[in-house]
């Protein structure tokens, strides 16, 4: 969670968020880590309870985890302590105003956050500012509009849970957004993510991109 439009939902969800475990989610985190590899410094935008941050911290030198919701960051910090990880720095702030110098990060992850931002292009342009020219952007994002059936399933779940998406992407929409914000899409895939508490999965667009810097 990286902004305050959904703050009450995420504050209520923070303590129970990590209970949404599944083999699909574990495989997704493994895929993110494999794509990023053993680099120096990684930014995790919308870090939530730090699931991806902790996995990356085991293979990179430094992770900066950013989330606007204090309850999420509190859980993430506690989880890192329990895991014995000391190379994660936590930041309670908006993805719209990142507190880093230009061209700082070797890789940036934005996992399932762009669709719940009112203006995701602002966050992506901030990411473009702080990523290195050789950096990698990994943006797995729910694409609720990929099929009519998936959209209907999401809408039913959202009406019960109180969750709000400002954008219902297709994978094509997601790639177009990322491209408009100064990145070149290198890889795109559509996968289904199923959680143990859900009878049905949700469709996710898995996109990997690199920054484009015009001279």
Automatic annotation (TrEMBL):
Gene3D superfamilies: Vaccinia Virus protein VP39
Listed InterPro entries: Methyltransf_25, SAM-dependent_MTases_sf
Source organism phylogeny: Bacteria, Pseudomonadati, Chlorobiota, Chlorobiia, Chlorobiales
One Pfam family hit: Methyltransf_25
Transmembrane residue ranges: none
SUPFAM superfamilies documented for this protein: S-adenosyl-L-methionine-dependent methyltransferases
Organism from which the protein derives: Prosthecochloris marina
Domain Methyltransferase residue range list: 42-135
UniProt-recorded name of the protein: Methyltransferase domain-containing protein
